[in-house]
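Record format v2
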Amino acid sequence: MRSKYNWLLSILLVFIVQVGYAQEKTLSGVVQEGGLTLPGVSVVIEGTQFGTQTDLDGKYSLKVKQGQTLVFSFIGMQDVKYKVGAATTYNVDMAADGEQLEEVVVLAYGQSKAKNEITGNVVAVKGDVIGKTPVASVDQALQGRVAGLQIASTSGSPGAVQNIRIRGRNSMSATNEPLYVVDGMPIITDNMSGAVDSNGNATGTSLSALAGINSDDIETMTVLKDAAATAAYGARGGNGVILITTKKGKRGEPAYTFKSTVGFQNFARKGPQFLSGEQKKELWLEANINTYGEEYNLDRNNVWDWYVGPDGYGNDALARWVNNGSIENDWRKAVKNKDALMTSISFGVNGGDEKGTYYASLGHDKYEGVVIGSDFRKITGSFNMTRNLNEKLDITIGANVSNIAQNGIMEGGAYFSNPNLTGMFMSPWTAIYNEDGTPNLNTSAGLHNTLYTSANNTTLNDITRVISSNALGYKILDNLKFESNIGLDYTLANFRLYYNPIHGDGRAYGGSASQDEKRIFNYVWQNSLDYRFYLGESHRFNVKAVTEYQKNKFNSLEGRGEVLPPGMTGLGTAAANYTTYSSYYDWAQFSYFGMLNYDYQNRYLLDVTFRREGSSRFSEDQRWGSFYAVGGAWNISSETFMQNAMAINLLRLRGSYGTTGNSSINPNMYMQLLNAGAYNNESAIVAYQYGGPLGWEKQEKFDLGLEFGLFDNRLSGSFTYFQGKSKDLLYSRPLSMTSGYTSQWTNIGDMKNTGIEAELNVDVVRSKDFNWSVGANVGTVKNVVTKMPIVDGEPLQVIGGYNATMEGKAYGTWYLKEYAGVDAQTGNALWYKADGTTTANYNEAERRFQDTSALPKVTGGFNTHVDYKGFYLDALFSFALGYSVYDGWASYTNTVNSRSLYTYNGTTDLMDRWQNPGDITDVPKVSTGGNASYTSPSTRWLYSGDHIRLRQLTFGYNLNKQATRFVGVDAVNFSVSAMNPLTWVKDSRLKWDPEVDATGYVEMATPPLKSVVFTLNVKF
Amino acid sequence: MRKVLRILTIVGFLGLGTMTFTSCSLDSEQSNYIDGNEPITSTEKLIASLNGAYARMTSSTYYGRDIIVFSEARAPYAYSSDRTGRFGNVSAFALQTTHSYAKDTWLQIYRTITNANKVIEAALETSEKNNYYKGQAYVIRALAHYDLVRIYGEQYVNGEGLAALGVPYKTLSHSADESIKRMTVRENMEAIYADLEQGIAYLKAGKEAGLEGNSLVKAKINYAAALGLQSRIALFFSQFDESQLELVVAAAEQAIEARGNVVVLPRAGYIDGYKTDGIMTNSLFELAQSGTDNQFTNSLQYIYSIGSNGGYGDVQWLPATVEAVFDPADGNDIRAKVITVDGVNDTKALRNTGKYVVRSSNIRMLRIEEVMLNYVEATLEGAGNGDMGQALDYMNQIVGSRVVTIKDGVETPKQFTSIKKKDLQDLRMKEMMFEGFGFEDAMRWRKGISNPKITDNDDLGESIEFGNPLLAFPIPEAEINVSKIQQNQAYK
């Protein structure tokens, strides 16, 4: 079919050429693809209908004028353009679509450029890399692949939100998450889960807004880091921008892809071990000897008789456990779902002709949680169509539809029905099951048997989202194009919560049910004019003018009721105590901006961007802000004096300076607000928010980089220095609480981030059958708060329980009393005083700044790829250095008193407790009441988070051509991947996973996972 | 030419689009708030703002739980075992400046004050009705500052009394950056009295104008309740300044006179009375809670009990047995039934299972029994206007409704023939336990506090005695960060 069409075309073209008129000179050459000549390639002079076609030997010859541009095109191949110069021969090597000759990077507002045309700092990650990373939300695939990008996981539960920081923390109180742009449309990326409290803080498994995107639909992800790259996104680009470009169809016959994945997941790190029943008994009896030993003359031999006697505890939980045969109950194991299954299937088709292309895909993913009670399922459908309506008009229609059903758990806090908490807190003396095999509901310390609650309660997010991105292009002139883009993003979020009346949180209410419906509609309308022109021979200009309007409408309706009939779980079945809540808010942003790209013979490049933007989030007089960026590059390798330096393929300097901003705060924060309340069934008004003038947070960014490619690009890489200064920070300034308010949003304070980034890629071996490459990237960031609000003539110092923020230090630097170990004589804990001596009195100890915060100072990754005759091996390591994490739950899991030793459970670290004078240990002596301050904030619970993680190891095989032809398909690939199989942690004391969320606290949530995943990929 | 026209069309289209958007669309809308800059211009808004102050008081960080538990967890007869990690550091006198108990209650009380100030500041025409509501706000402001003083003031520390550091007294709602400082306890006392007097005067005028009608609205502060609270507050200050005793007696007398149908709860209805969701017959003032408006798992019920309705049960009875306090030889005391074993796992611990038994229980803010006991105590301490005979009558009204001796099936109510300090203290402790008086009463009677959380800490010794700097809560660090007010001595 294809060849028939080509011949038809060629006849037509030959005819056209016949009537064409002869001109100054004849250009001729040979067109090839990978060494084979290509017949039937059309060669047309751009902007005319004149042209020819290659003959059976791939040869062509055509009469042309100097300065004209020839377009070589062939279906299934990428067009090649050639500007006619003085030469009379020009040979072309064409490449199939998708195998791009030169890597083209997608940039802001639909621009795409070759690497040496970019002045900003951007990193592109290809879709096939993302598709090969088996994770529930696509952002996770970026980890370790982009210098200066850090990912911290809020939970390992499938679909949970990831914290992404590009070049560290830029804002104090506004968000530090980057802006996500899908096919040109900025999307909202709030936590989609209904499990949030009235302040929007998560009370259970979160749900990433990106979880609805099928990783197989992604063509590329581009991370924009500096001002030149992000300034087009103006105010929202301050934290960096992640552009997600979805796949479009490619010209040619329908091509089908099929992918199937199955895998098994577990905790990436085991985490701390918890005491067994016997260990706990040993410690608890010792605690009683230490406390009551003198009074009752106790020792190891007689303590048990005393314990179960009238002076002791009688028939308490421990005695009952012993009487029942001392059966060990490993709750941590009980709440795990070992080898949790994940499966994924996706199917796609694409194709097209010169009139347009299409792409369609379907995907289905299912993840079991590694902790009981959680799972995740998504169905995605993606459709994309481009069509030339006539020679002037073209249209693009795209929609990404997804439905996610996520069974979450209560996590991220000490919820009694959090299975993670059960595993850590529940006493091993408490039976997991009754004798008849049913879950034991007579649990200790008010904790819930989460085996029962997770089976009988409901925490379900059901979210349907449509992201539709559409464009209409109109070619006014050949070099002037108008484009109108409309992005529609509609989310319907349904959240259902049910607590059973038998056991757990619903017991007090006779069962309770709630339902929460959210509708979020977000639309973006962009109109742009794009004009390209030359001044003279060498000065190329590209001017773009854009207006953009975005509006977001949020509607929610919630209901809650109590007392439910047996077996019924819906809100509609509740009998009493109904409450409802509803809320509406909106925000809007309007901006217009211009971009100018200039280059001189592709040697000197200059990009200028100016954007003016207004946001409804700010007070009326400060609503509008202006942002600009200037970027420049010098392609040294394109200079004539470099033409003889054959070893150098690419050498360029690039730099940028500009301003961006941040407006990501809740709407209406500038207003003085009164909230509704209720008292005694009467309406009430309460003072709620203290507002005031509020405007844009501005960031000044400077970026200077060197890029190079040597020896036929076998050695390539880049070095970058950057500096970001945030000014007029959107800062939730703490107020004296005597005002009745805790904080006020203001523009106060400055912060600075500086760092270097480096990337290096080496193709060690390049050959037909054997290839080996290695690559590495590293990014450093140093954060300093440079200005704080002045209070009473002095800069404000915000001192929290664990960290502090003040001028001259990194935001949220850990600020703790320093632990000095255990007094070998008394067994008491010691801390350092200001004079350097130690004290056993916690209150006398001095708080000191530690050198670290929750954010790493250095992050990066290194990777290697080996392939041999279709077999390949990929390995990716990621690392993070220079940060600390704090275990805030130590006051439950590591106390030397009844809390860990009796009521709840402790870690096996407690077995190292001090016992006799002279013992050298870090764990104080145990007693029944113990000293609560032993687990108060101190460096005892602060751990270095430094780690290196084998992030992904993939071994695969591509079936060779003969075999695929035999099977009748285009390509077949098998692979097996291991995610997070190995982790090396510097601090041997740290048993938890070092990857915690961006706040730096070990949270009671599902930790990161490791998995083994098998994948089959077929193209036909 | 056609091209030019085309371009003009497009540019015109863009320009129009731009204008359409810029002209109107950057004003945001929201559904749940109103502009706080607008002054209160109607009586309806005044009432709603006053209700807001009451709503603030019901929060679990204030009267909904915490301030009551702060007294009970530091009482001679109760403490927090820290079973679920709640209030253990209060019982252990181990609060740090960054702990949420110190911070949250500080904030919530000032929030209440801010709402009260908005009511007081309202520029409305002077009418008895408007003043009646303003009067309530004055009393709320006084009570709130009194609550701050008793928790954060250093009056107990080293016996400094009224000369000690108190708390900032807020009388303005609008300026968040007002420079503030800690007043002395004496200055606080004078400001509190001034607010009380103003409030009581307004309430009295309102009552006389018939605004209280025939039956008291006990879910809000009424004239009698304001006087009762005045007697409580004056009794507190009288421990540092005996001249306050007469005010205790005078206020209590007037409160009792104005109490309407409020009487001492009879013995027969004692246990059931506390189980009612509604207002008790012996109450002058309660903060209303309901099935939908309550503190849920942060309720008093949840902190006291672990039984069939679930609960944390951190706060428990301290003595080894009920009989250690309620000696059967003294007669059958109905109040002993408040304390029982709760739940099946924790069989050795005794808990309050009689007061605040459901989460929707109203918060008993002021009972007539307390007002009577205030009168008795002040009289006993030497108030010149106190009547010993009247005091004895109040004592007997209460004890006669609580304790009986049973002989051959015949119940004889217990009666005193004279008042001893010890009897009064014993009666008051048993009467008010678990209602938020334990710590303040012990301090006034100069009794030390001892519990396992204290004795387990080598740094503290066996008990915390009057004068110990730890008797004052720390001023929250988050407050000092901003306003730089002075920290209490124990936490510097």
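The two ends of chain A are 17 Å apart (CA to CA).
The domain at 2-101 of chain A is CATH 2.60.40.1120 (Immunoglobulin-like).
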